[in-house]
Amino acid sequence: MIVEINNFPRESEKQIESVDKALSILECFSDKITELSLKELSEKTGLYKSRILRLCGTLIAHGFLVRYNASRYRLGPKLLMLGKAYERSNTLISIARPILRELTTLTGESAKLFVVEGTKRLCLAREEGPYPLRYAVREGETFDLHAGASGKVLLAFSSEAFRNEILNKLPEEMTSTRPIDRDHLEKELETIRTRGYGSSLGELFPEVAGIAAPVFDYKNTILAALTVAGPIQRFAGEHFQNKCEHVIASARKLSQLLGYAEDDSSIASR
Description:
By secondary structure, the chain is α+β, with helices and mostly antiparallel strands.
C-alpha cells in the first residue's frame, strides 16, 4: 500500500511574500513611533531601501501610508477607517466602553478589558484613571496568560485543554517578580474559579496591583477579563475589597449585556 504524504501547506496557511513584507512595514509604527524615515524602515525590517520604496508606494496609493518631507512616512487614513469599522463590528468593545468608564470613576483606577489572543492576552479596550500616577497599558498590547490578574482569570475559566497547553509551556526562568511554580499556579487558578475573581499584588511589577473578574457570553463561556490596576498602595486594606466589589459587579453587568444568564450553580462548578 502506498501512502502519499503531502508536505505542502494548506491554502489557508500559505503566505504571499510581498504582502507579508508590506505588513511588516506597517507593524514598525506604534503610538510611540508615529513617523519613520526610509533608513529607519530599512533598519527595522531588514529590507533594501529600493524594495521599501516600491512597497511604500503601493501602501501610499491605497491610503495605508502617507509620505511627507521627502522620505519620511506616517500611517495613513485608511487604517483609521478600518480601525473604526473593526470597533463598530466588535460589539464587545462598544458595549464595554461605558462600563469601563464607569468602573474607572468608581475605583479611581485605570480599567481594561483583556481577551485571549492565541497563547497571550490582549488589551482590547482601556480607560485611563484620573490620577497622574497610574499603570498604563496600550490597547493592542499583549501579555502572558500565566501572570497578572486578568491573565490568570482568563486562564482559570478557559477549557482544561487550553489551560494545560499554557501550563505545559511555562517558561523556566523568572519572568515576573517571583519564580513560576506550576503547582502553586494551578491551586491559584482553582481558587479564582471558586471565588470568582483574581488579583495580583506586585506580581508583574513590584509597585503595581490589579483585580480582575471574568466576563461570560451567552454560551456561558469565558469571553474576556475586566480589570483595574494601579499603584499597590491604593489597593491596601478596605480599598482592595471596595475595588473588588466594583470589578465583580461591572464584569457581571457586562456579561448580562452580552446575554449571559447566571444560573443557580456556583462558579466553582465550571
